Amino acid sequence: MKDNPITIGIDDSTFDLKSGLKTTQLIGVVCQGTRLVNVIRTEINIDGNNATEKIIELVRQNEKHIQYVLTHTITFGGFNIISLEQIYNEFKKPIIAFNDQKVNLDSVINALIKKFPEDYREKIHYIISAGNLYKTRIQTAGGISNLYFHLKGIEISEVELLIQKSTIDSKLPECLRLAHLIGKLF
């Protein structure tokens, strides 16, 4: 792995389910190591099914340079769940979906069944096909933190090295931290 790997971090913007809005922003931040290179965005449907294709569109804009695709979880815009496998197969570039905390899979599945009684199966399929949720511990400015992740096309040891090379003081790689901050603006 190069000293300054080129990553794209993807996160959604904040939104209020009660607002009646049907879409929210999807933010992509490209970094070389911890240095910001580019910011791109698109829209996704809240609780929709288009986040995978929209992430593919964002990555394609910088495909030649990007070495790793990083997402903040596998759910965007509520329950617009992505297919890590489809994104990986499109580019053959490692993809890692980071979570700040351990996910209670039973609670998520129950919420999906309740909210989408007609078409929850595909969403559950994407969650299950994301594979294991791995855990690592990372030193941050605030001390040791747990970080969880799904992965495709990369080994756990390489994910841990990527985290070291792409973070400053946060437990999230800089591209994801920035995408999250920018998402708060919309």
Keywords for this entry:
single chain, 186 residues, alpha+beta, archaeoglobus fulgidus dsm 4304 fold, seven-stranded mixed β-sheet, two-stranded antiparallel ribbon, 6 helices, 9 strands, 33% helix, globular
| The level-1 CATH class | Alpha Beta
Would you tell me the structural class of the helices and strands?
A: alpha+beta
Give the uncertain stretches in residue-range form.
none
Strand count: 9
Task: Using the 3D structure, state the CATH architecture.
Answer: 2-Layer Sandwich
- Determine the mean pLDDT: 94
Query: What coarse outline follows from CA principal-axis ratios?
Result: globular
Report the radius of gyration as a whole number of Å: 16 Å
Question: How many domains comprise the coordinates?
Answer: 1
SSE order: EEEHEEEHEHHEEHH
Number of helices in the DSSP assignment: 6
Write out the CATH superfamily name.
Answer: archaeoglobus fulgidus dsm 4304 superfamily
Fraction of helical residues: 25-40%
CATH topology: archaeoglobus fulgidus dsm 4304 fold
- Main sheet? 7 strands, mixed
User: Order of strands in the sheet with the most strands?
Assistant: 3-2-1-4-7-9-8
Q: Could you give the distance between the termini?
A: 34 Å
Percent in strands: 25-35%
